[in-house]
Amino acid sequence: MKSQDRKKITRKKEKNSLDSAVNLFAEAGLLKKIKRSGWWVAGIKDPESVADHSFRCAVIAYYMAHLEKVDPFKAMAMALFNDIHEARINDLHKMGHHYIDFKEAEKEVFKDQVEHLDKGVKDEMTVLRREYDAQKTNASIVARDADILECLLQAKEYYDSGHLKTKKFFKTAPDHLKTKTAKALWKQMKKWDSSRWWEDIVKFER
Q1: How is domain 3-205 classified at the CATH fold level?
Q2: Which of 25, 108, 114, 198 is 20 to 30 Å from 131 at the Cα level?
Q3: From CA 91, how far away is CA 94, in angstroms rounded?
Q4: Which pLDDT tens digits describe the chain residue by residue (206 residues)?
Q5: pTM to 2 decimals?
Q6: What's the Rg (C-alpha) of the chain?
Q7: What is the domain partition of the chain in residue ranges?
Q8: 113: exposed, middle or buried (C-beta count within 10 Å: 0-12, 13-18, 19+)?
């Protein structure tokens, strides 16, 4: 193959990968519109979006990773991209999972989402996804704990706002927490008043 032909193929691949990147960014934007459907069962008419959840998961994972002595950027990336597939197949609450094997669909969607990205990005995202799903490394366990902990924190905020049914979530979800840090944070959250942090800031500023 001539050098000029190779350059044309390289430029075409780069153009395609850039186009695929922009498409992924657009898909990520859809997560701002997709609601976390599990809260509907608890009577929340307008729950937070998947993007809201993913962002705070990443923040929690980053913090927890430092305390658990694991790579914070790896744990944060796992938490951030954990629900990216929901841009195509939406969020499905537990009742839906009872009837539909969503795990296989999630894997297929993610595979398609990264297929034409820059090879380095695709390879890294694929490795992180597999590691998260396997739940055998400390970083993946931290990322999963962050996901559970974010749900618990959201449930506590809803509960403090008068949605009392969300308290049911307190009984089962904590049993799935594995790290010492996550368990300690949940213990703190249970007695935490979700209105106090901002009230204290206002008082301090006065």
Answers
A1: Hypothetical protein af1432 (1.10.3210)
A2: 25
A3: 10
A4: 555 544 444 455 555 889 999 999 999 999 999 999 999 989 999 999 999 999 999 999 999 999 999 999 999 999 999 999 999 999 988 888 889 888 899 999 999 999 999 999 999 999 999 999 999 999 999 999 999 999 999 999 999 999 999 999 999 999 999 999 999 999 999 999 998 888 878 776 65
A5: 0.89
A6: 20
A7: 3-205
A8: buried
